[in-house]
Specification:
Layout lengths: L7 H9 L4 H10 L5 H11 L22 H137 L27 H14 L4 H20 L8 E3 L3 H8 L4 H8 L2 E3 L4 E3 L7 H16 L9
Antiparallel strand pairs: 1-3, 2-3
Helix pairs in contact: 1-2, 2-3, 4-9, 5-8, 5-9, 6-9
């Protein structure tokens, strides 16, 4: 058996394309050495065959004409085998080189991949660190903004509080001024009312006005002897206070006593010549019950000029004892005591 003869040109092209020499010979043999395309198609169709890497063998042709033909065939077969072995050795060397190159490339690629991974890790770490730094920066900015906001709020609250306190002080001052003004006006009204009441009582009693007492006395000085008053208004008020304090639980009785005393004084001022107005019987039941039994009333009448006569049974005011100034002052004090609800209650 011998290796079949194939087209060496086609064989070389197949080897250049990377096909092994044994497979190329087998493909060219079985495709009929017709064309390169037929050989490639055969290789693709039979690449998984069990004998794809075995040289095909054909019966050896014996030439009768020449005895040296066997040597030529032998030499040709040996040349083909040597060529196939050489190609196989080259392929193995190329494969080894390719494997080494692949290993080196894989190592280089691994190093590059490792470097890329390291760069990615560094980039990721840097990105994360930058993100954390930005987050911390945002937190710091937010804290600073919150602090500034709290400061502004505290400042606004302080200013609002100061403004409120200032407004309250102003309102209090204005209210105090208004109260003081109202008190002043009230005092003025009270004084005016007291003055009007005094004037009204004087008119009711027939007494002259205060501004005309000194210049126009009711009794001509030629008929009534004027005497210097030995009694003061304070003494008159003291007896009236005593009367009020001793009977403070019976205000109606005190008021009625004041009214009777005022009536007695008014009658004398209006009719100083009438003796009946200047004479009081102490045993009179009405007078005794309403005036005489109240401590301080008899003493008040004595200060006004009355005197006890005939075994203390009468109070008499002599004509020469009539003092219009004293009687006017007594009438004013009685009227004031009646007008003031606290008269005699607050004094010691």
């Amino acid at each position: 058996m011998a290796v079949p003869q194939v087209d060496k040109k086609l064989l070389g092209e197949l080897e250049v394309m990377g096909f092994p020499a044994v497979r190329s010979v087998r493909a060219l043999h079985y495709s009929g050495n017709s064309s390169l395309e037929s050989a490639i198609n055969w290789l693709l169709e039979h690449e998984s065959g069990p004998d794809i890497d075995q040289l095909p063998l054909v019966p050896r042709e014996i030439s009768i004409e020449c005895g040296d033909s066997s040597n030529e065939v032998r030499n040709s077969a040996q040349g083909i085998r040597a060529h196939a072995q050489e190609r196989e050795s080259e392929e193995q060397t190329a494969t080894g080189n390719q494997k080494e190159t692949s290993r080196v490339e894989r190592g280089a690629n691994a190093a590059e991949d490792e470097e890329d991974d390291r760069k990615k890790i560094l980039a990721l770490y840097k990105s994360k660190r930058d993100e954390e730094e930005r987050a911390r920066g945002k937190i710091r900015n937010q804290l600073q903004e919150d602090k500034r906001e709290r400061i502004r709020a505290a400042k606004d609250a302080t200013e609002a509080k100061q403004t409120l306190e200032e407004n309250q002080r102003k309102r209090m001052m204005e209210s105090r001024k208004a109260d003081q003004e109202e008190e002043r006006r009230a005092r003025e009204r009270v004084r005016q009312r007291i003055h009007d009441d005094k004037a009204e009582r004087r008119r009711g009693l027939g007494l002259p006005q205060e501004n005309t007492v000194a210049s126009a006395p009711l009794v001509p000085p030629t008929k009534i002897k004027s005497i210097e008053p030995a009694v003061t208004s304070e003494q008159l008020r003291d007896y009236l206070r005593t009367l009020k304090k001793n009977h403070k639980d019976d205000n109606a009785r005190v008021t009625r006593a004041f009214q009777i005393l005022l009536k007695i004084i008014a009658n004398i001022v209006k009719n100083p010549e009438e003796e009946k107005f200047r004479r009081i019987r102490l045993s009179n039941p009405v007078f005794k019950d309403r005036v005489g039994n109240l401590q301080g009333s008899i003493e008040f009448l004595e200060l006004c000029g009355f005197q006890k006569l005939r075994n203390n049974s009468y109070l008499v005011m002599p004509r020469g004892k009539v003092d219009m100034g004293l009687l006017n002052a007594a009438g004013v004090e009685i009227a004031s005591a009646m007008q003031n609800p606290y008269f005699g209650l607050l004094s010691k």
